[in-house]
Design goal:
Elements lengths: L3 E6 L5 H7 L4 E7 L9 H10 L4 E2 L16 E5 L7 E4 L6 E3 L5 H10 L6 E7 L12 H12 L2 E9 L10 E9 L3 H8 L2 H8 L1 H5 L10 E4 L4 H7 L12 E5 L2 E5 L32 H8 L2 E6 L5 E6 L30 E4 L2 E4 L2 H7 L14 H10 L3 H16 L1
Helix pairs in contact: 1-12, 4-8
Length: about 400
């Protein structure tokens, strides 16, 4: 079986790697993980403990020379959601350079500087990317699409809620694939009926089926230069013009709102729970129940800001405790620790109410049991890892479909 070589950026604790390597069709030839806000590089340490230190970089990717990164077939990564606006125009062949520290431009730099750039891209982000920033809805995604277009890539995207396809967590993320113009997939996409690609023929649709309502996709022309897009795209627009699915090629976006179509088995919260051996520290003391009930409950009250200003505050109730018969809510980075929280998961057991364990959080992201367990790493840190991670099962399915399309 041919192995596709992969560069893994913003690797975290290896969710992309786990998903891709489980298909046996991919080999990670270089990886990078750097957390700028912490002295101890916990995620990188864990990554090396699980996959080895060979060809792994723990340096700020913006400071890594492109010449140090090996050639590969595929570049993957779940890059941070930031402000992608254009900062400067340089009067040289490199053209546009984005704001310093915005990591999308590190991907752009690698693709533009490599003599043999990766032919395929597989990227992930939070779904609000499609409607950011608030004063120019969809501008950031338009900048990405056009910057990739300028580098010779077509793009296919979909917002996927893992739970809609039988996975144990309601986690919505945008996944997008890039195809270089030298590839057969690019040529097939260019010739295709774009609606058929979005609904049936595309790499994502092949594994994540949607209801085909035969609606024609909305078309959006994005042919301005990046500075113009940055300054004026959908200026003061109330809504994003991008739907949850689409393709972009040669300056033209085709986008449709799609609905999942899945008839398989659904995994629910109770399926991932530890049956026994849960440490006492995860159980909530009876005297703390009122605190949790207040935070989880509906509120309509007057609050006072630090400045002394009073304001009306209201919010709806959360399900408390969690329903064991549904996929879980989205894991967040603050899931760990004993303190009461509106957003932490709480389940009801025969011994009383308790929080979720790190192992259960790993299962909700479809990681191997105890993947984040390492001497000296707290349960809170392990929970933080999972709050930042992606659902491995989604990567595995898209990776399988991409491999089949490349190698068939």
């Amino acid at each position: 079986m041919k192995k596709l070589k992969v560069i893994e950026l913003f690797a975290g604790v290896g969710g992309f790697r786990l998903g891709l390597e489980s298909t046996n069709g991919y080999e990670i030839v270089w990886s990078n993980q750097w957390e700028p806000s912490t002295k101890t590089q916990h995620a990188s340490i864990l990554y090396e403990a699980r996959f080895g230190s060979k060809n792994h970089s723990n340096r700020n990717i913006s400071e890594v020379k492109t010449s140090e990164i090996p050639d590969a077939d595929v570049l993957v990564g779940g890059f941070p959601c930031q402000d992608y606006s254009i900062a400067t125009t340089l009067q040289n062949s490199k053209g546009l350079i984005g704001k310093k520290g915005v990591l999308w431009w590190s991907i752009h730099r690698i693709l533009s500087e490599k003599k043999n750039p990766p032919k395929y891209l597989f990227l992930e982000n939070v779904d609000r990317l499609l409607k950011s920033p608030s004063h120019q809805r969809g501008r950031d995604f338009a900048i990405m699409l056009k910057s990739l277009d300028d580098l010779g890539y077509a793009v296919e995207w979909r917002v996927i809620n893992a739970a809609d396809y039988g996975m144990p967590q309601r986690r919505r993320r945008i996944f997008f694939l890039g195809y270089h113009k030298s590839t057969q997939i690019y040529k097939s996409l260019k010739k295709s009926n774009k609606a058929e690609w979005i609904y049936k023929l595309g790499t994502i649709a092949s594994e994540f089926s949607v209801i085909n309502d035969n609606k024609s996709p909305k078309t959006i022309e994005i042919k301005d230069d990046l500075v113009e897009i940055s300054n004026n795209f959908n200026k003061n627009g109330t809504f994003s013009i991008f739907e949850n699915s689409g393709v972009f090629i040669n300056g033209q976006a085709y986008t449709s709102k799609t609905t999942s179509n899945y008839n398989g088995k659904f995994t629910v919260l109770s399926d991932v729970l530890q049956v026994d051996s849960v440490p006492d520290e995860f159980y909530i003391p009876l005297e703390d129940y009122p605190k949790w009930e207040y935070l989880k409950g509906a509120k309509k009250e007057i609050r006072t800001a630090k400045s002394g200003f009073q304001y009306s505050y209201s919010e709806g109730s959360m399900i408390f405790p969690e329903s064991p018969n549904k996929a879980s809510r989205t894991i967040i980075t603050g899931e760990g620790g004993r303190s009461a929280s509106r957003f932490k998961h709480v389940i009801k057991t025969s011994k009383g109410l308790r929080r979720l364990t790190p192992l259960e959080l790993e299962r909700l992201n479809m990681f191997p049991d105890n993947h984040t367990k390492l001497e000296g790493f707290s349960d809170t840190k392990r929970a933080f890892f999972m709050g930042n991670a992606l659902v491995v099962g989604v990567v595995e399915k898209i990776g399988k479909s991409l491999y089949d399309k490349i190698c068939s």
